[in-house]
Amino acid sequence: MGCDIYDKDEFKKSAQNMYDGVQTNLKIKGNFCYYLGSVKFPYTDIPPSKEDSQWGGWNKEDLAKTLPLFAEIGLLTRQPVDGKEGLYHYDLTDLGREYQYEDIDRRDVEPIYDNSFCYGPIKVIKVTDVSEKTYERGLSGYNETQVSVDIDYQVVNTPEWVINNQDKLKALYRTSSVCLPDVTYPEALLYIKGKDGKLYNKSSSYFLMQPYGELLTDKE
What are 50-87's pLDDT values in tens digits? Predict the structure, then answer.
């Protein structure tokens, strides 16, 4: 049910501040990020091993798809390893460095370098609907009032490397991973009403897209 007690313009400002703020805080080029895997550049392929942990094996599977794709797109260089067929050296190109987002987790003995390429700043066009519902057991496990805010947005400055490689990116990262210029997209944002009566934004400020699909490439 729609709710008229809220100011849609205030929600529009709140949403835009959220999307702009994460770009500033994380120093990323936009709100849509293609996750490569845990990798530190420059990087040389490491063959799968029986000694790999489950996580390590999964990460190598991701890199075997993401690195060749972004080398073909032009964000990475790719050079064969001498004397080791099927293995390659990878490094960032200037274009890759421009769109790179590296998140370094230093909580373990060895740091983990999670790398993504991010594009597409979001511009909120308008708030289309606001609805409120109270649940006996919400996200917190207690009585909770949730406010759903539906918005329309567009993506600013979608780069040529995304536009020119739509099919390959959609094959690996799903159809919704490609946002085109001058197209309006819907999104639902979630706010939780606190005991103090204030609203707290629980929405994602950027979208980290995982390589769950298949590699579609022109190269062997």
Answer: 888 888 899 999 999 999 999 999 999 999 999 888 89
Helix (H, G, I), strand (E, B) or coil at 192: strand
* 128 in Cβ contact with 170 (< 8 Å): no
In 120-218, DSSP assigns E strands to 122-135, 144-155, 185-193, 199-201, 207-209
pLDDT at 220 over 50: no
- What is d(CA 120, CA 23) in angstroms, rounded to the nearest whole number? 10
How many beta carbons lie within 10 A of that of residue 139, not counting itself? 11
pLDDT band at 154 (very low <50, low <70, confident <90, very high): very high
Cα separation, 75 vs 99, in Å, equals: 8
d(CA 179, CA 158): 7
Q: How far apart are CA 59 and CA 113, in angstroms?
A: 12
Give residue for tokens 């990116």: 169
How do residues 30-60 score in pLDDT, each as one tens digit?
A: 999 999 999 999 999 998 888 888 888 999 9
**Eight-class DSSP state of 175:** G
Other CB atoms within 10 Å distance of the CB of residue 2: 10
**Would you state the pLDDT for residue 153?**
98
**24 residue type, one letter:** T
Give residue 130's identity as a one-letter amino acid code: V
